[in-house]
Design goal:
42 helices, 8-stranded antiparallel sheet, alpha+beta, Four Helix Bundle (Hemerythrin (Met), subunit A), Beta Polymerase, domain 2, globular, NT_sf
């Protein structure tokens, strides 16, 4: 490989570019079409060559800050050469870089923000030259933000607009009239900056808060915005803007001399900035556009570009993303330290600063019950800088007092705490008082999520519980998890606190109603919720490893042997209830018996239910829905009946007779012949599985369809609380019926979550499909589901060809192709007394359920029920099946053939062979 350029001048030859442009322009200038076309070709070519060299350098040395400076230099040379050509060497205006370009750094896809600074009077020739430059830059496909103003106009607009003021704060002369630019600089500093520091700080901090709210409040979103997200580059830029404006410095390094940062903290600032610039520049180079969000589909490539490799328990992309989130956390630490210095070191010199920044009067008073902490400006602060060194338990007391008195932290206290984390050692972790305080904070009836997050942000939580420290900033490379592991656990504590307070009683009333009866196990429940994913990222099953960790650390936290055992059991089985509810047939008694044999007591059942609700709801917005709540409630009540001895011991035949009599009685207002005909249609499985009220609805549906002589009909019913819509299909039974229904739902964009398949005595199918609800209002949802039903009818009657519709109407979600999930199929005969249970797992795609059910049909299997569960990009579908004689699949050769067929379907090879055969 050729030697890479190390100096800026080697990236692009500015002198040669000026000479070449001048030769092309000739006497007519660049306004002539031929000259303009030649110049445009040259500029594009030189820019592409230079940017290519910069990308090679980035891959070679990995420095993001250097990359941003190099790209900026390339643009400076191009703009300088253009200016020299169009201005004829005169200096009638100044071409000024503002915004990020003014700071001297650019990403490959960044906007080029230019200010054409004109002398008073606005020389027409200068304005024309600016216009020529702009058109050429636009023709180069550059995003150019521009303004043409005089010095007076700049100052007037800057007084009115904080954004313009920030742009001018970073103004930098690229080329042209240096004296004119100096006049702007001098007057801007004297007339605005020197007198409006507090006002500017207030505005920029408010702007930052608004930006965070828009981009996502958490800095631990698994697809973060590198530029505008919390903990991203814009946060660092905001610190620099405020520092430059308020402290009147030119560089971030000067903030060390002002006492704002220590040298180590400034080094952290530079390191974070360099890393974030590297990520951002790689993203732009990779995608060929100004991509600012680190989407799943590019995370793996960025990790590879940055040189990350896989380690046991963590893939390369997960290690890269953990590094990213740790850097984002460091940016948060620097922000706290900066704000503390801003308030403490400078507020005393600026009259009214406290009132402007936070509305506080500068009052200090003692805090009851302690001499180590005070109330300063209505916030909790340390009495002196030796508080933590004098007694490390004070690290916990700070958060305990904040929780007890519902107080905000003074920035100085958090800065001192961050700088005192080295005091956390084995002795503190084993200290009974420290552990009592921590347990009080964790189980607080006020806002435990808030103070745990503060402890985690400050770095104390990971130091106090080293195993928790290992999952801080750890992301799981999947579309299911919205947050890093530590953020998920803290959010789960917030959900548990909400359940206990009754804030979400309408979302899951059962959990709320159970909490008052769990007072004896309350501490154990909170600890289990905090620790249930603490062993993520290890080679061992995280549930088993997590239980072992709990047995080790819970006694130190002050939990009894019984509570420690409860915590360990809950962690080891924290996925059991969720997976059973979502992937098993809850109408199959064997499902309930197997689940109950693990749970063993009603107390554990209650605790596991609450933990499961917290776990699902803490994953992220949109993951919890009413249907999952309904499944959990059904599993809970059925299991409770069995554990308390209330589960029916009647024989299956007796229960069938009783169910048939109940339906006959419910239809008592019908003519007897009609009633007997409908009741006789249903087999045992239907009568024992379907609720009586639904049986009556189905009876009316069948009766109306028969009266109208409709051999094919659908009925829709929205369920608002469960957030699903039920579609009932009545059709002549045939082996691929469920496959066609699933395909029609996929084509309509309807996500199936559950399906029950029944056959009537006269050879018809009565299938009930549950799809995720899309609209809030029932009338809107009914219209939408009616359209889905119509598409099902068209597909079943042959009016629509599903493969074409699916291909046209659906497409995989962004990033889905990035994931690699080995296809798996398993047949288990021990999970049901009457059915073989087939579980398939693989990468989801549009129409997959239709393909799988079609494959099952081709294998001559009769599907009794289907349970569809999607975890982001991964699908886990469970089918209760028999062969065509109603028997389980127990022949090893047959089992092997079924598994092979399903695996081929999951990875797409089965579909490819089917298409090839058709062609």
């Amino acid at each position: 490989m050729a030697k890479l350029p190390l100096k800026l001048d080697e990236l692009i030859d500015g002198h040669a570019l000026r000479a070449d442009l001048a030769a092309m322009a000739g006497d007519g200038g660049l306004t002539q079409p031929q000259a303009r076309a030649a110049a445009l070709h040259l500029l594009k070519e030189r820019k592409a060559e230079a940017f290519g060299r910069v990308e090679e350098l980035l891959k070679a040395d990995g420095s993001g800050s250097a990359c941003a400076i190099r790209l900026c230099h390339v643009m400076d040379e191009i703009i300088g050469a253009l200016y020299a050509c169009v201005s004829g060497g005169g200096e009638s205006m100044a071409v000024v870089a503002v915004g990020g370009y003014g700071r001297g750094t650019l990403a490959p896809g960044s906007d080029i923000d230019l200010l054409f600074l004109l002398p008073q009077g606005k020389a027409p020739a200068a304005a024309a030259a600016a216009e020529t430059m702009l058109y050429l830059l636009w023709d180069m496909r550059l995003k150019v933000g521009h303004a043409t103003r005089t010095v007076e106009e700049c100052l007037r607009l800057a007084r009115e607009d904080i954004t313009i003021r920030t742009a001018l704060l970073e103004a930098r002369l690229v080329c042209g009239d240096g004296k004119l630019f100096q006049t702007l600089e001098h007057r801007f500093d004297r007339e605005l900056v020197s007198t409006t520091g507090p006002e500017y700080v207030q505005a920029k901090l408010a702007e930052r808060d608004t930006r965070h709210a828009k981009a996502g409040e958490s800095r631990y979103l698994v697809e973060p915005n590198v530029k505008d997200g919390k903990g991203g580059l814009r946060d660092l830029h905001t610190l620099f803007w405020i520092g430059k404006y308020f402290y009147r410095v030119r560089t971030a390094e000067e903030l060390v001399g002002k006492g704002v940062f220590t040298q180590a903290e400034y080094n952290l600032f530079r390191k974070a900035e360099d890393f974030l610039w590297a990520v951002r520049c790689h993203m732009h180079f990779l995608t060929g556009k100004a991509e600012e969000r680190l989407h799943f589909d590019i995370q793996r490539d960025i990790a590879e570009r940055l040189g990350y490799t896989s380690h046991p328990g963590l893939s390369a992309v997960e290690r890269f993303m953990k590094h990213y989130f740790l850097v984002a956390k460091n940016v948060g630490d620097l922000t706290r330290i900066f704000c503390a210095a801003l308030e403490e070191e400078q507020a005393k010199y600026v009259p009214g600063f406290d009132r402007i920044i936070g509305g506080f009067s500068r009052r200090k008073r003692k805090l009851a019950g302690t001499s180590d902490f005070i109330v300063d400006n209505h916030r909790l602060n340390v009495a002196d800088d030796q508080v933590f060194e004098r007694d490390p338990v004070n690290l916990l007391r700070l958060f305990w007092f904040a929780d007890k008195h519902a107080m905000e932290f003074h920035p100085h206290a958090l800065k001192l705490l961050t700088r005192s984390l080295g005091l956390v050692d084995r002795a503190l972790r084993r200290d009974p008082e420290a552990n009592r305080l921590f347990l009080d904070i964790l189980t607080s009836d006020r806002d435990p999520e808030l103070n745990l997050r503060r402890m985690n942000e400050a770095g104390l939580l990971g130091r106090l519980i080293p195993d928790f420290g290992k999952i801080v900033a750890m992301m799981q490379f999947s579309m299911y998890h919205h947050y890093t592991v530590d953020e998920h656990l803290i959010r789960c504590i917030g959900v548990l606190s909400e359940i206990e307070r009754g804030d979400d009683a309408k979302v899951h009333p059962l959990s709320h109603s159970l909490m008052p009866g769990l007072k004896k196990s309350r501490d154990a429940l909170y600890v289990a919720v905090l620790l249930h994913d603490i062993a993520k990222g290890r080679l061992e099953d995280h549930s088993v490893a997590g239980a072992r960790i709990a047995r080790r650390i819970c006694p130190h936290m002050g939990l009894s042997a019984a509570d420690t055992g409860t915590v360990a059991w809950l962690i080891e089985h924290h996925l059991l209830m969720s997976m059973t509810a979502q992937t098993r047939d809850l109408n199959d008694r064997k499902t309930i018996e197997d689940f109950a044999s693990v749970v063993q007591s009603v107390e554990r059942l209650k605790l596991l239910l609450v933990l499961t609700v917290c776990d699902i709801r803490g994953v992220g917005p949109g993951v919890w829905n009413g249907w999952k709540g309904q499944l959990l409630r059904t599993l809970y009540f059925e299991t409770e009946l069995l554990l308390t001895g209330g589960f029916s011991e009647m024989s299956r035949a007796d229960r069938t007779t009783a169910a048939r009599d109940a339906l006959r009685e419910a239809l008592g207002h019908w003519p007897q012949a009609e009633r007997d005909r409908i009741v006789a249609l249903h087999y045992q499985n239907y009568l024992l599985t379907v609720d009586l009220a639904d049986q009556v609805r189905h009876a009316e549906f069948i009766r109306q369809a028969d009266a109208a002589r409709r051999s094919l009909d659908t009925m829709v019913r929205p369920h608002q609380f469960e957030a699903v819509t039920e579609i009932t299909v009545l059709a002549q039974d045939h082996p691929r019926l469920l496959s066609v229904i699933a395909g029609a739902c996929a084509a309509a964009g309807a996500n199936i979550v559950d399906a029950q398949v029944f056959t009537t005595a006269d050879g018809r199918a009565l299938d009930t499909i549950l799809i995720n609800r899309e609209f809030e209002l029932d009338e809107d949802e009914r219209r939408r589901s009616t359209r889905v039903g119509k598409l099902i009818e068209d597909a079943l009657s042959g009016k629509s060809y599903l493969p074409e519709i699916i291909e046209k109407r659906t497409k995989p979600r962004r990033g889905q192709k990035t994931f690699r999930i080995p296809p798996r199929a398993e047949i288990r005969n021990a999970l049901s007394n009457r059915f073989s249970v087939i579980e398939v797992e693989g990468l989801d795609r549009p129409g997959l359920l239709s393909e799988i059910t079609g494959a099952l049909s081709d294998l001559s299997l009769d599907i009794a029920s289907a349970h569809i569960t999607t975890f982001g990009e991964k699908v886990i579908d469970t089918f209760y099946v028999t062969d065509l004689t109603g028997q389980k699949i127990e022949n090893p050769a047959r089992e092997k053939a079924i598994v092979e067929k399903l695996v081929a379907t999951l990875d797409g090879t089965g579909l490819a062979r089917t298409k090839a055969a058709a062609e």
